[in-house]
Amino acid sequence: MKSSIVKKYVMALSGLFLMLFLFQHFCINATSLFSSDLFNNISHFMGTNPLVQFAIQPILIIGVVVHFIMGFVLELDNKNARKIGYAMNNGAANSTWASRNMIWSGLVILAFIALHFVDFWFPEINTKFIQGDWSGAIEGVEGYRYFTELQHKFANPLRVGAYIVAFALLIMHLLHGFSSAFQSLGANNKYTRAIKGFGKVYAIGVPVGFIVIALFHYFNH
Amino acid sequence: MSTISSKVPHGPLADKWSKYKEHIDLVNPANKRNIDIIVVGTGLAGGSAAATLAELGYNVKSFCYQDSPRRAHSIAAQGGINASKNYQGDGDSNYRLFYDTVKGGDYRSREANVHRLAEVSGNIIDQCVAQGVPFARDYGGLLDNRSFGGVLVSRTFYAKGQTGQQLLLGAYSAMNRQIARGKITMHNRHEMLDVVKVEGKARGIIARNLITGEIERHSAHAVVIASGGYGNVYFLSTNAMGSNTTAAWKIHKKGAYFANPCYTQIHPTCIPRSGDYQSKLTLMSESLRNDGRIWVPKNLDDVKAIREGRKKPLDLTEDQRDYYLERRYPAFGNLVPRDVASRAAKERCDAGYGVNATGEAVYLDFATSFERYGKEQAKIHNISNPSEAKIMELGQEIVKAKYGNLFQMYEKIVDENPYKTPMMIYPAVHYTMGGVWVDYNLMTTIPGCYAIGEANFSDHGANRLGASALMQGLADGYFVLPYTIGDYLADDIRTGKISTDGPEFEAAEKDVTNRIELFINNEGTHSVDYYHKKLGKIMWDKCGMSRNAEGLKTAIIEITALREDFWQNVNVPGTATEYNEQLAKAGRVADFLELGELFAKDALVREESAGGHFREEYQTEDGEAKRDDKNFAYVAAWEYRGKPSEAVLHKEELVFEDIELKTRSYK
Amino acid sequence: MNLTLKIWRQKGPQDKGGIVDYKVSDISEHMSFLEMMDVLNEQLVNKGEEPVAFDHDCREGICGMCSMYINGEAHGPNRGITTCQLHMRTFKNGDTIYIEPFRANAFPVIKDLVVDRSSFDRIQQAGGYISVNTSGNTQDANSLPISKENADLAMDAAACIGCGACVATCKNASAMLFVSAKVSQFSLLPQGQVEATDRVMGMVKQMDEEGFGNCTNTGACEVECPKGISLDNIARMNREYFSASAKG
Fold this sequence. Notes:
The structure holds three protein chains of three kinds. Chain B has helices at 13-23, 29-32, 44-56, 94-104, 111-131, 163-180, 246-253, 300-307, 324-328, 338-353, 367-380, 388-414, 469-489, 503-522, 528-542, 549-569, 581-605, 629-632, and strands at residues 36-40, 59-63, 81-82, 156-157, 184-187, 190-198, 201-209, 215-219, 222-225, 258-259, 264-270, 293-297, 321-322, 362-365, 423-432, 435-436, 449-451, 634-641, 643-653. By secondary structure, chain B is an alpha+beta fold. In chain B, the strands form five sheets. A five-stranded parallel sheet of chain B has the order 5-2-1-9-17, with helices on both faces. The longest helix of chain B has 27 residues, at 388-414. Chain C folds into two domains: 3-111, Ubiquitin-like (UB roll) (Roll), CATH 3.10.20.30; 118-131 and 143-247, Alpha-helical ferredoxin (Fumarate Reductase Iron-sulfur Protein, Chain B, domain 2), CATH 1.10.1060.10. The radius of gyration of chain C is 20 Å and the shape is elongated.
């Protein structure tokens, strides 16, 4: 863990894992656009399946924490590597804003995750693990409760606004993070161009998708 | 005048080195651990010597003035390195390389040294490849060669246009291996300011730490000087800004003879000067002459029009151009040796045909090659009836692959696109064949003090062929000195550590500090550069590409006067106990001011024209150099006696057993 | 042209240092940047002031000694050149130019614009070589064919001049481009295979110990590198490091 390159591997692998998670999360959320039933069914499955709950969920949390902590360690290391800075520095001449500001886009995303936890995850844990209600039902609603909850949350314009800001920064984060992860792992070869191209599509497509879902529910509830 | 012994072993030329190696004394590995060697300079010669000596087991202390050994000026060599591998099967051999080098040197080099050089040349390539030097290769994966001026075979190995860099990094990596093992102690940013002799033998040096200003004593059983040439005596040269003669000059003042200082190589393909502020000149590899044709306008009217910007070089038709090298030397054409090409350019420019504002530039034109390669490529790619533009494009691609980095460099400096308009070039001081006199063992006339690489006078005679400097530096450092130094050190196995407390070290240190104090306390009126530029102008005007007795005599008077003025009026700011570049420069220029005088004196005494030394009084009717083998087939080794004007000439007669002395002809 | 220069002045390693303003006039557009500095220094010497200390040597872009951070970029605004190859035609009359040393903890300032880059040497000493003795008895150079592609790639990596622009430019002061260039050169050649594991482990360890930052793939180093050393080399080193770690 002391080696700078190992730190890079950790950052890259946890990042790739989170991108995979993000993609499946996006796919599930996307079902809410056309079928509340499908969304409810998948959500209930994910929320109650023991494998997901007790194996994948902890891994995901570890992934987030590792990625976050390592990002912070790297940032501190890197700030310390140049104690006296330049009076005049033209970073824009040689690198993208996104690549230079991963810590800031990362922190905004982290803040968003906190909000997300307060919104969805803590209530879920409370319902399931503290109150012991694994039914997925809620008073006054037929079937499962998930779709209704989703709609409620996106009724608030402030929340939708925060959502959009966070996902805009996620675009920035991914625009650099996607191809960077491959570079860090040394997966740089004849497919590099394709990886970079796909990375751009992913980095913009997925967060924009999330924003569309949020806006859809805001306008359609 | 006395004569001196070169200690060349007897026997047939081709066997001398191998026989000699078999019979010289060796030092056993256990004893090598008790022997220290100082190496000053970390270029190809110094770097390779330090690495090899350390590898053999000696304790090496290495010194360089740069911040890292990797920055020595060998790094700037572009074109390549010669070796008689005969990989191209074009008839190359050790003998031919030897012969070309002696002939190229205008028969003023020592036969036995040159033959040894040719013999080890192949080993150098093997060694460098084993070290991971990325030489250019062909599609079969084997090593590629190119041809160079003054020879009829392709024997030059290269790594793009950065051969010197790659070879130096190879030597540097070999050094790093030994530094990591603790066998080399590296002293970066240190400058040697004197040699210390104990009982007549070189036993150490006084060096200044360029960062702290501290004066340090270092002792050793032998001292190797690999500090390069003295081209910066001209102020403007292709040498690095810091390249200097101080180490070589200090040992000269302590008893090492200085040989043939007047042999200076003026390289024909450099970027012309643009103004008085110019701090150095940039060389472009001579390999450009393989594909470029050199010309000036035939008519002075056209010259005038071009200088005033009324005409462009491309406006001139073929019959309005004078391809003067092809005209004068039909056999070698644009590939004549450097001295010949340089002088021919000067001859045209002196006659008023120079094509830029300063009047000191000729064209190097690639249009013919674009066309030739373009047609070839069109055939290869089966393009029938290609348009002229297509041919040019195809041809330019080939030239780009060969010299892309040089074209790019030219464009960066001159701000003109050499693919569209011919390059402008002019000769510039590049290499000094003269240097510290050494015997066959590379030992100077101070016992235990060696000189290798450009710092010595050895192998190139009066003119060096392209791609031979790298060969000589590495040959000396990797394969010659490590053997010959053992012969001397074998007597030192019982000497033990040399103390730096002796009176000799004390005296030498005192001399050094006195001189530094003199500079610091002088509070004069002119900067060091002011004097350096003045010296450079005297040297270029009167000891440059062509010389005459009257000019040389004036030069001696002027340099003497300038030196006196320097010591009275030089202004060195700052203190002696800090990083002070002006102070370091002052010491170097002080030595150049002495060397310059000896240079002129040597040029005056040599009443013939040979290689880089062209005396206007001694030329044939058509302006070619006229050698005088009867009276001047000797090495002029100068002994220092208090000041340059008192220097005493010793002659080493040059004996040619295997080569017949001929008039060098490239016609 | 006339210019205002804002130059970092620092008397010694312990001094705090700061930016000092200077004016220079009658600068020719054909001058190189360092020749402009020469003009300034000549002025300062003649006024009895201390000239600005800066590193420079070959002045043809190959020794790697010159190291100025000009207007916020290593070696100034142009691409593919060192400071000594920068010409004044890049600037306009009346411009203000910031000139600072290459900055990184691993490159401490010695004086003014002169920094200590010996950390680079120490990294090379930690494995940047092939252990072969100079016996003169190595096998014939042509007994080991190397594909042109790999030989060319090795050459491209080996073109590094060790100037430190990558470190100076990197927001993290990372030396990955420099280290990976050497690792790549040898990993592309058969001669380098024998010691490949120790080389990459040793050099990376030394790099970390010298206090360089971590690479975050911003790519700034590649853009500012005067020799255009490619980021691919960093990826290659990451691979090499991975397989070396796997071997233990």
